[in-house]
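Bit of a strange request maybe. I'm writing a small parser for structure token strings and I need a real example to test against, not something I typed by hand. Could someone generate the tokens for this chain?
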Amino acid sequence: MSSNASPRMTSSLYPQSDLYSPYEQQEEHEKPLGREHISFENHTSKKHSRALHFYHSISWILGFKARYSLINCFVWGGALVGFCLARSVTMNPKPSLIAAQLVPGEWFWFKQPLYKVNLFIHIYLTTLGGIGAVLQFFPAMRRRAMVLHRLNGYGVLFCLIVGNICGSIIARRSFGGELNVQSGYYTLGIMIVFSGLVGIYNVKKDTRRHRKWMLRMVVYFAVAISARLIMLAARAIITSIGTYYSIFRCDEIIDLLAEQQAIESAFPQCVAPGVNPASIWAAVHASTNEGPLYVASSVRATNGMALWIATLIHIVAVEYYINVTDSANGVRIGYVLEPLDYEENSTTSY
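Reply from user aminoacidic:
Good idea to test on real output. This should exercise your parser:
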């Protein structure tokens, strides 16, 4: 059975103009981008590549191979150097200048010969040791100037060990010298000195162990930075609460409150007839919104807590970092620790 093919009739329900054409859609999607869009993308990519190239160049100069190493060095090393430089103003032995840089009331104790000598030894040695410690973690120094690395390392160890021993001596009166403050500083001093001694012992015996203990020593040393940041927040909180107090000896209060009338109205027990101010104690409101005495009370109330929390954070942080980077420092090549899969011709892991 055969039939003649008849032309297909166009339905009035589906106009010809509404029919889907994949070729037209393809042509529409393949429409070339404008010059402005292309130039913007090229400009952005060039800026990004320049910044990345600059970052890689600095990493190469300092000897870093992992992409995150320079950032770590800049953030944490920069914080340590910045803190040391900021506190270097206390290296001036002029009493009026150093008293203004300390917590109000601390100079009352630190001007005594025993504390004064140890205070300045602590300030000078830890400032120099903190700045020098950052240089020890530049791989370029170990690869190209090993003698300088060793000399600087021994200098850093001497500064930090001796400086922290002197710091432990003044801890008896530092930030008020309460028991939680003393115990925190004594524990921290033991941790720093012990880490430094173990690091010295392993200088030539076990480079990997030497690196770990040197990292621990420097990270423990930097606890003071985190403690101060925590203390700033804690002081604001207890000031807002308004019900925290610290204990001061009356001769400390008299030293900070110059006006006799203010002492008589706020602390009459300190100026009572026949009273020895060195044997009477008084509670002082902790607040950052009042005078120097009350600011000192807020520091005294929060420093011990801040010190212990910062110590715990730094212990966890350094152990985590050592564990994460252990494989990247698995074998000693020359005087530098390299990854286990180290290739002599490789220069970067980017």
